[in-house]
Design goal:
Layout lengths: L4 E5 L3 H13 L4 E5 L7 H9 L4 E2 L4 H5 L6 H10 L2 H10 L4 E3 L4 E4 L4 H14 L3 E3 L4 E6 L5 E5 L4 E4 L1 E4 L11 H5 L4 E7 L1 E5 L2 H4 L5 E9 L4 E9 L3 E3 L1 H9 L1 H6 L4 E6 L6 H14 L15 H10 L13 H12 L1 E10 L5 E6 L4 E2 L4 E2 L5 E3 L13 H18 L2
Parallel strand pairs: 1-2, 1-10, 2-6, 10-21
Antiparallel strand pairs: 3-5, 4-5, 7-8, 8-9, 11-18, 12-15, 12-17, 13-14, 13-16, 14-15, 16-17, 19-20
Helix pairs in contact: 1-6, 1-14, 2-6, 4-14, 11-13
The structure holds flavin-adenine dinucleotide.
Amino acid sequence: MSPRRIVIAGGGAAGFFATITCAEAAPDAEVTILEKSAQFLSKVKISGSGRCNVTHACFDARELSVRYPRGERALLSPFKRFQASDTVAWFESRGVKLKTEGDGRMFPVSDSSQTIIDCLINAVKAAGVKLRLNTGVESVKRNESGGFELALSDGETLICDCLLLATGGCRAAAAGQLAVSLGHKLEPPVPSLFTFHIATPWLRGLAGVSVESAEASVPGVRLRERGALLATHWGLSGPAILRLSAWGARELHGLDYKFPLHINWLPHLNAEKIATEFQSRRGSQPAKLIVNTPLAPLPSRLWEQLVLAAGISRDTRWAGLSRAAQHRLVQQLIRTKFQVTGKSLNKDEFVTCGGVRLSEVDFKTMESRFCPGLYFAGELLDIDGITGGFNFQAAWTTGWIAGRAMAGA
Ligand SMILES: Cc1cc2nc3c(=O)[nH]c(=O)nc-3n(C[C@H](O)[C@H](O)[C@H](O)COP(=O)(O)OP(=O)(O)OC[C@H]3O[C@@H](n4cnc5c(N)ncnc54)[C@H](O)[C@@H]3O)c2cc1C
């Protein structure tokens, strides 16, 4: 009997994980990975600013699944089979140790994405996989008798029994076409993980200033996130903003990225507590200038701008703070109102929301529900996570499950 021919289209994180898993579990199969560009794993290379945020230190399947604005329900049982702790063990068993940063993000100890790339390439070679660069799948036809006929970019026709599509996010219109040509539907692609443009001059003057815990919310669409915020030359960024952009990817797209944004700079306090603190300052430091005496933990430059934005002059002392001005300052601290006018890609990590419709895929195997022998993994699916290593985790997990299933394991 001739060996089973398995083709993986897409040499990114999901494609490699599936390929290695499959080739190791089915050593007799003929496994080929096709990459249309001149380089394998190019997104891994640039990921996490060149450090590759491989996964997140979140070792409970349910807790992990709620980090996915799209894909939460579908990923729950896959995570029960292969989750972040399995990723850590997988890389460690191949000599790559991961470390955890304070916010839970996990990186190779080397702080270099090349370590991850070398590990994956070595594993794929050791498993005897055929590697082909500059070879895109241009079109695919399912044979009546089963299996697929692939038309490749170099003019060759390749026949296989199983095909895994791991071709990445569907941002470009053509990207999901192979899946569509085999009868699958795509949820419309829109960007996720982006930063906000805000034209308010005093905010732009604060570029580089960050706060560890603020709350950002979009009134009217029930979006609220707490976490670190960073002022940039064009507006706001930081984990709280990126998470808001992920959860609101569709709604904010629908608003053409023009919407009001509220920031609570002191979410651990409430208006009464802040007012009580101001009252006490009136008594304890009446002669001090308000602009010079920030409320912890706010950075002094931000405090100064919030005081001025509340209409309190630079020479106002605590003793001279009127009730009306106090009210304005409290409101400014708990609800600064900005207008977002657009978005920018976040350079550290971005993904596409949208892709192959999840109800059409069996997540026990990652096989198409109506096209036997066709499998999916990675960002091509309508799955995306918040920032912090969750997107690679989805690629490792779906790749691993597809790889096992294609191997018949
Ligand atoms: C700048 C940046 C930084 C990121 N950093 C992180 C991070 O630190 N942590 C994290 O979790 N996530 C990160 N992400 C997200 C993460 O990179 C993706 O979610 C992940 O790469 C998806 O893997 P994938 O294999 O599904 O797709 P991809 O990595 O996009 O791979 C798909 C591959 O398929 C190839 N291909 C496409 N069409 C065809 C075809 N027809 N035939 C053959 N090959 C084809 C493409 O050329 C590509 O190489 C980052 C993303 C970006 C853009």
